[in-house]
Design brief:
The complex is a heterodimer of chains A (about 350) and B (about 220). In chain A, about 70% of the residues lie in helices and about 5% in strands. Chain A has 12 helices and 4 strands. In chain A, strands 2-3-1-4 form a 4-stranded antiparallel beta sheet. In chain A, helix 3 packs across helix 11, helix 4 packs across helix 11 and helix 11 packs antiparallel against helix 12. Chain A is elongated. In chain B, the strands form 2 sheets. Chain B has a 6-stranded mixed beta sheet, with helices on both faces. In chain B, a hairpin with a 2-residue loop joins strand 4 and strand 5. In chain B, helix 4 crosses helix 5. Classes of the chains: A alpha+beta (about 350), B alpha/beta (about 220). At the A-B interface, helix 2, helix 3 and helix 10 of A face helix 2, helix 3 and helix 4 of B.
Chain lengths: ~350, ~220
């Protein structure tokens, strides 16, 4: 409303030929509110205009974005791999338990007493008893060696207690081993097996892998900065004339800088999008073999993709890197272009 | 409006382009600047545009001491000045309209206002029917007029021109000069650097002649009609 009133109150500003321009000349500035609006319009227009400019040169745009995509996609793929391995690990982790083999001569009563005393321990949450007979039935059903057992005179399997430690043991090798030694000295116990060591090793490898992915990501991020910086440097060179004219007619450094920054953002974001696509295609590619492999292990394993949040993360990381790369190029090369 | 006070400019090559120059241009005055090449004409214009800074002396424009103007303020300062170049400095990757619109866009004008003002400026120089054309398709005289439209579209208080008629025949030159005079009549301070002595003498306006960076003549030429 107020803005409209202001505009209406100065109607004679249209033509430099009108006599009013004598005053009009002193008002060579846009009004503040208009300026603010124009500032945001300038930004949103630039977002589209820079995209159109990139779309007008599809090959150049695709090449740069693809390089960015590969640099983003490599650590992303590695990361996805690690996440999937962790998923595999965590499934085993929940079943991590101690198998306690008891003396074959142990009586039912003694075993029951042991079970109850173990249950009262603070670091044990559950104890399941598998009698020799149950073990035999299970073995015959699952192993496929049932016929072999029938040839034996007596049941060779010992009674077993399956001990489930409390959750805080998970991943804590020392505490679990402490429990193992405590169980081993008990009179009825023959042997204790802890099925966690390979898990710990897997965990260790995954940690190494995570670090690797991270350092690879940092190195490749630097590469992305250089790639986008160089592309923007070329763009600046090719638009030298325009920059000179814009500076001559009173364009601020920010105004000159802005389209290049948006171009950098676009390169990065497009690279992120392409990277997501590459990883998705790669996952699709190995999904079949992984499924078959899982079948061979009599397991169901579903490959986890990056999902929408992964896409968002890649695009944002790409855009931020693009912005920084463009900023570096602009800071280095724009100051040197002045009207002469 | 423009005041040089013992201004000297020595380039880093050691060449002294201006030495101890003092002169004053009143608001709304139209003045010619002439001299052999290398006499310091371009340097004088560049100093006003703040494309160069004086080595010694003071330069006041519209009461502001340019020595005290921080480089971040230079863009805003330049929005009060229009410049016309011999080589036009037009951009051939966009239409005539977009070329003229540039000074308004960098100052943050609304699109509607931009359209209005650009068309007014194009109308003024007689190119309204060519707004959609690429400047490369325009003739030399039309390109120069387009350059002038761009220089005045934001209604600057000062209009500078460096050899604006350099490549044009006498008839076109006279038309261009007539345009400048019209802006002057609207209150714009106009300073034109030119070799075209013939034209200047016919217009009977104040003439500054530089030689070796010094002012050797200031006034209406005696042979004026």
């Amino acid at each position: 409303m107020q803005r409209n009133r202001l505009r209406e109150s100065k109607p004679a500003r249209a033509k430099p030929s009108s006599r009013e321009s004598r005053r009009g000349a002193s008002d060579g500035r846009a009004r503040f509110l208009d300026k603010l609006r124009s500032y945001f319009q300038n930004h949103s227009q630039l977002l589209f205009r820079t995209f159109h400019r990139l779309a007008a040169e599809p090959v150049q745009t695709l090449m740069t974005s693809l390089v960015v995509a590969i640099a983003l996609g490599l650590p992303a793929a590695l990361y996805v791999g690690i996440v999937n391995m962790q998923q595999l690990g965590s499934r085993v982790e929940t079943t991590a338990q101690l198998t306690v083999f008891l003396n074959k001569e142990a009586t039912e009563v003694a075993v029951e007493q042991l079970r109850e005393s173990l249950l009262s321990e603070s670091d044990i949450t559950a104890v399941d008893y598998i009698s020799r007979e149950q073990a035999l039935v299970e073995f015959q059903a699952l192993s496929g060696f049932g016929d072999v057992l029938e040839m034996l005179d007596e049941n060779p399997l010992p009674p077993v207690l399956i001990v489930q430690p409390v959750d805080r043991f998970q991943g804590d090798l020392l505490a679990s081993e402490d429990l193992v030694t405590r169980l081993k000295v008990l009179a009825l116990v023959d042997d204790v097996r802890l099925d966690m060591k390979w898990m710990q090793r897997l965990q260790g490898m995954l940690e190494v892998g995570e670090r690797l992915a991270f350092s690879l990501g940092v190195a490749l991020a630097l590469g992305i900065l250089l790639i986008i910086g160089n592309t923007i440097r070329l763009a600046i060179e090719s638009r030298r004339d325009e920059i000179v004219v814009v500076k001559l007619v009173g364009g601020t450094n920010a105004y000159v800088r802005r389209p290049f920054l948006y171009t950098g953002i676009w390169y990065g974001a497009l690279g992120g999008l392409l990277a997501w696509f590459l990883v998705a295609v790669g996952l699709q590619w190995i999904d079949g073999p992984v499924e078959r492999l899982a079948e061979l292990y009599q397991s169901v394993f579903e490959l986890q993709g990056m999902g929408f949040s992964g896409l968002l993360a890649l695009v944002i990381i790409g855009a931020v890197l693009g912005l920084i790369g463009a900023w570096l190029a602009v800071a280095r090369h724009l100051a040197g272009i002045e009207p002469k | 409006m423009i005041q040089f006070d013992k201004v000297s400019k020595r380039y880093s090559t050691g060449q002294e382009a201006l030495s101890g120059l003092s002169l004053e241009l009143a608001a709304g005055e139209m003045t010619f600047l002439t001299g052999h090449s290398g006499a310091g004409k371009s340097t004088l214009l560049k100093l006003i545009m703040l494309m160069e800074r004086p080595t010694h002396g003071q330069l006041l424009v519209n009461g502001k001491n340019l020595n005290r103007l921080h480089s971040s303020q230079v863009p805003y300062y330049r929005r009060n000045i229009g410049v016309v170049f011999q080589n036009h400095q037009l951009l051939f990757d966009r239409s005539a309209f977009d070329n003229v619109a540039l000074p308004l866009l960098v100052s943050g004008y609304q699109p509607r206002e931009v359209g209005r003002r650009v068309r007014a400026a194009l109308d003024k120089v007689g190119l309204l029917d060519k707004e959609k054309q690429n400047p490369i398709t325009l003739s030399g005289g039309e390109q120069q007029r387009l350059g002038i439209a761009r220089a005045v579209v934001h209604k600057p208080r000062i209009l500078l021109a460096d050899e604006p008629t350099g490549n044009l025949d006498p008839q076109l030159s006279a038309e261009i000069m007539d345009l400048f005079r019209q802006f002057c009549e609207l209150g714009v301070t106009v300073l034109i650097a030119t070799h075209d002595v013939d034209l200047i003498s016919r217009m009977g306006l104040r003439l500054l002649r530089l030689e070796g960076g010094k002012l050797i003549h200031d006034g209406v030429p005696e042979y004026a009609a």
